[in-house]
What does this fold into?
Amino acid sequence: MKKVAFVIIGFILLGLPGLVRGQTIKGTDHDFSSRSWNTAHYLCQICHTPHHASTTRLIWNHKLSASNFTWGTETTTQGGTKLPGNIGTWGGMSKYCLSCHDGTVAVGDLYHNAYTTSEFVTGDAVVAPSGSLAGNHPISIPYPYQLAKNTYNTITTGDGVALNTFVADPTTTGIRLYNDDGAGHVSLGAVATKSGIECGSCHNPHDNTKSPFLRVTNDGNQICLSCHNM
Ligand code: HEC
Ligand code: HEC
Ligand code: HEC
Ligand code: HEC
It folds into this structure.
């Protein structure tokens, strides 16, 4: 009887990965603990440190890029929403991803307990060496949460955006939205008229179960349809 119960509990645990087993950064591209330069075998501390962090929010430990990032020659989206020029100084989390993924800062270059390494993100850098994000999906901009114009990072949804081509609340399917208190403080969760998107809307840096580190699978471009009602 006991064995049967254990087997059943085992199946339940396997069936609820996110809830019961937790996230799985170990063994992913974001697990640097076995690098020869990482003598303390830091798993978390490449990105967060309990003390001496560069920021209080997220206690961030990886050296930030000096770039503020541009979008090449573009200044707005097709719908007229302004593209942000302040990602390097903005409170949203995308600058933390770009601290490695713009390819200018070494992976082991930390604020506290820095390592000297020559390992940089190369193939997966999403930014041109000039600091241009051109060619990437917009980030640090408002999401038309509840099919209304939102203001996020001082940017308001453009007049040309067809609000009904968006999903009213994509967080119900696993997408992450952020809200802006208007004073540069960004928190998790959607708030009417104040919601926006960052790299972390689509990506979860701690979990590669839905590769590449996605919050919703891209199979059949399901992740696009989580936000775009097309
Ligand atoms: C490659 C960099 C990286 C590593 C390594 C990393 N994190 Fe994170 N972590 C992030 C980023 C980026 C965020 C912000 C996510 C967001 O805002 O969507 C974050 C957010 C968090 C949060 C806030 C809650 C949340 O879901 O956003 C906690 C708690 C956290 N990390 C703990 C950890 C722990 C514990 C480890 C080690 C097991 C770890 N992280 C390893 C990058 C990393
Ligand atoms: C400490 C440096 C660091 C930070 C911070 C970091 N990454 Fe990475 N990431 C890497 C490295 C290194 C790789 C391996 C690929 C390479 O070297 O080109 C990688 C790989 C990836 C991949 C590709 C995985 C695959 O299977 O192809 C994605 C997607 C990714 N990162 C997204 C993010 C996002 C989004 C953030 C912020 C939430 C982030 N990363 C933060 C260093 C980092
Ligand atoms: C709107 C959703 C979305 C946002 C926002 C987003 N990504 Fe991605 N990202 C994806 C999807 C989907 C893929 C997988 C693409 C594929 O399979 O061709 C991907 C792939 C990647 C990869 C893998 C290598 C590559 O070039 O395809 C990296 C690295 C990455 N993203 C980093 C980032 C960073 C850094 C940010 C923020 C600056 C970001 N992403 C913002 C959806 C997003
Ligand atoms: C987290 C929600 C979200 C996801 C997921 C998402 N998008 Fe978007 N997308 C947006 C928002 C918000 C805008 C900006 C709308 C505006 O204000 O112009 C946008 C804009 C766009 C644009 C117009 C860009 C421009 O310059 O006008 C295209 C095209 C697009 N997305 C395609 C995609 C594709 C393809 C995917 C899947 C790989 C995807 N999106 C995933 C939220 C999302």
Remarks:
- Residues 7-20 have pLDDT under 50 and may be disordered.
- Residues 29-30, 46-47, 62, 96-97, 99-101, 107, 121-124, 199-200, 203, 205, 211-213 surround heme C (ligand 2) (CB under 6 Å).
- The CA atoms of residues 137 and 199 lie 9 Å apart.
- The two ends are 51 Å apart (CA to CA).
